[in-house]
Design a protein that fits this description.
Layout lengths: L9 E9 L5 H12 L9 H7 L6 E7 L2 E10 L3 H11 L4 E2 L2 E12 H20 L8 H13 L2 E3 L2 E3 L8 E5 L2 H9 L5 E3 L7 H9 L1 E5 L4 H13 L4 E3 L12 H9 L2 E2 H7 L15 H12 L4 E5 L5 E6 L3 H7 L5 E4 L2 E2 L1 H9 L4 E4 L1 E2 L9 E4 H10 L1
Parallel strand pairs: 8-9, 8-10, 10-11, 15-17, 16-18, 17-19
Antiparallel strand pairs: 1-3, 1-5, 2-3, 4-5, 6-7, 11-12, 13-14, 13-15
Helix pairs in contact: 4-5, 5-6, 11-14
Length: 386
């Protein structure tokens, strides 16, 4: 059907079954003969074929043991409504030649959608091969570029990294894989993640030979990681997102701005100091250990647990439902969830009489009275302070 491909918008795919031996001319004759006059002159198949709005009907049919089965394909350059009407009319055919027959339309295929998918996939291949620049104002091109950049994430001695880490004279040290991916989306290919609170030896060794910028989140966890980096690695510059923000959620513009505003390590040593650690747990108090165990189980699930006075499960929900559910909850002693603790959530928990609010990260500036706001790192650190 290559002769119809230039104007074809849709392909009608149908199956045919006949109680007898029939051939292609029989099927084509039945299609034209039994739909004639059915839909009026505007949708008459013979006229549509003459005008080129319906292409050559393709029939593939085989006969076996006195029965015939096969497929029918009809190219259409009509709009989708008219094409659907033509497709439905095929199912009114009940005889082919002298034989009883049924035709069932399986689907209507959008040929242009296939072409668009081909364009995107081929563009990915071309961009990957020739590293051509993207034009950000074109939506389809931006989609292709983002896909290529994300696919470029690699590893450096087991750590998530951009493809430029090995060869670049400078590196950007971030906290996790999601941060590396976000920098790749912004076109920055020399980032490496430390993946935890302990700085890997591979990162320490890289900072000895390359200009190193620490780009960590503006929260307590980021402060602790920065403090360790300054102690064990040769950091030259420090960049931070806006207060309360993480690297993985920044837009391209915000990433570029933060890196442009990086400061020399000498200034950062005084400017970025860790916040005071949470007070140690009293000896014999096993509640924090139990909460840490629950937090470890929830990590990576995007779920939250509401716990009673005995730290027994009241309810497990999705993190996105936490605020709404907490508003209606009663007798909740602790809330443990795989997410970021906000000031709003902390104040709501305090209003409901919650004693412990525990998440992966915290953006709480002032903890409400009678509420302990803790992160997983806080719980782990307290264990060693006991």
């Amino acid at each position: 059907m290559r002769e119809d491909s230039g104007t074809t918008k849709y392909l009608i795919h149908a199956k045919i079954e006949a109680n007898g031996v029939v051939e292609r001319p029989d099927v084509v004759g039945a299609i034209f003969g039994q739909t004639e006059g059915l839909l009026g002159s505007d949708l008459d198949l013979r006229e549509l074929l003459k005008s080129g709005r319906i292409g050559r009907i393709k029939v593939e049919i085989n006969s076996s043991q006195g029965k015939s089965t096969g497929t029918i394909t009809i190219p259409s350059s009509l709009d989708r409504v008219e094409t659907a009407i033509i497709a439905a009319s095929l199912e009114t055919i009940d005889r082919v030649g002298p034989c009883e027959a049924t035709i069932k339309v399986e689907r209507i295929e959008d040929v242009r959608d296939i072409k668009r998918k081909f364009v995107v996939e081929r563009a990915k291949e071309l961009l990957g091969a020739f590293e051509e620049a993207a034009t950000e104002t074109q939506e389809i091109t931006e989609k292709v570029m983002e896909s290529v950049r994300v696919e470029e994430i690699s590893e450096y001695e087991g750590l998530p990294a951009g493809p430029g880490v090995r060869d670049s004279d400078a590196i950007i040290i971030v906290e996790g894989r999601a941060d590396v991916l976000n920098l790749l989306r912004a076109g920055i290919k020399n980032a490496i993640a430390i993946e935890g609170t302990s700085v890997p030896k591979a990162v320490i060794d890289l900072t000895k030979d390359k200009t190193a910028t620490a780009f960590v989140d503006s929260d307590r966890g980021g402060d602790l990681i920065l403090k360790e980096l300054l102690q064990v690695a040769e950091i030259d510059f420090v960049a931070r997102p806006p207060p309360g923000r993480s690297v993985e959620e920044l837009s391209k513009k915000e990433i570029i701005k933060a890196l442009r505003n990086k400061v020399p390590v000498e200034i950062a040593t005084a400017e970025y100091r860790p916040k005071p650690a949470a007070p140690p747990v009293e000896a014999g108090n096993g509640e924090l250990q139990e909460l840490e165990n629950i937090m470890n189980k929830l990590r990576g699930t995007l779920k939250a647990q509401l716990l009673n006075e005995k730290l027994e499960l009241i309810e497990e929900i999705q993190v996105r439902e936490l605020k709404e559910r907490l508003t209606k909850a009663q007798n909740v002693k602790a809330v443990v969830f795989d997410g970021v603790i906000t000031q709003e959530l902390a104040e709501l928990a305090a209003e409901k009489g919650v004693q412990y609010l525990i998440g992966m990260r915290s953006r709480v500036e002032v903890a409400p009275k009678n509420l302990r706001v803790l992160t997983l790192d806080d719980l782990r650190r307290m264990k060693y302070q006991k």
